[in-house]
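Quick one, T. Sequence first:
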Amino acid sequence: MNHTSAVNGERPSIVLVGMDGSTGSERAFRVGLKIARRRGFALRLVGTFLRPVMTDSSYVPLMNQYLDTVVNEIQEMLRGYASQAEEAGVRTTTRALVGDPGGTLVDESKSARVAVVGKRGRNRFAGRFLGSVSAHLAAHAHCPTLVVPEEWESDTSSELQAPAQQLAHGDDAADEPLSLIEESKPRAHKRRVFANVSDQLNFDSEVVVGVDLGTKADEMLRVAGEAAHMVNRPLALVSASPLNADGHWGPNPVEHNIEIPNLRRPYIEQLQESAHYMSEQFPDLTARWQFFDGTPAGVLSEASRTAELIIIGTRGHGGFPGLLLGSVSQAVLNRAVCPVLVVPTPKH
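Structure tokens:
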């Protein structure tokens, strides 16, 4: 069944992978290669590095020699990965460029179907959870961007443990109360049980899509349906909002309890509309929806501990006009421990 839209049909069938020689970019290569093989796409490996600024002209000859050496090293690295891809039967091209890595990948994304990048690379700034390159690409890419995090393993052999969110030092986000308020139907598929994850927030083997008010979601839902088909996993449409009218955590005041149905109604309606769209466009895909009392970033970040994939838009709820990456999207990218696919989403 071909779900490719006319808009995407205009783009070359290319998976773009940003490479910098780090372990993060190696993971991005493996994921990008898997996507290219499953979809029958070509692979484009791009390696870039930032040109150092020199103020003394006497260093120009040395700088030129340095640039030649670095470009040659990048080309050699890319050829090695390209050989692996060609052996796997995937047509591959490479580009070694001098320039801003983030900006270069954004330009390359104009002619790609999806871009893949590691969550952290050699170009990150100390203290930032999301690398500068992956953050820039997710915010400005012209195609969906898949951000691949570090791998994780259970720290015990006696019981299955989900990884913790990647929180900054002193971040109390993990203590945020989250509770399921309403859902379309219970999960039908078999899930693993994690000792440190509640049943309500266990999204094992599911592709989770963050559905937000005020954004045009058809493109994101289409991409989500294609992704779920590709990995052969059920889809969970998730929305969340703190239902305390005062905006503070704690029991809902009695005087506001009557307003809770009104507060959640637009979220439920959008989830129902999204589920209806999925049933029409992807009738053979299992999809359900859930609405939570909690922040969207909190629910989606917690879901990343067990989900197969998280899909979000660039403009998350709470973002400011003019910002290409909303506050929810930034938080989820920073805290998520599973791959996150970021889809450009315009405002209504």
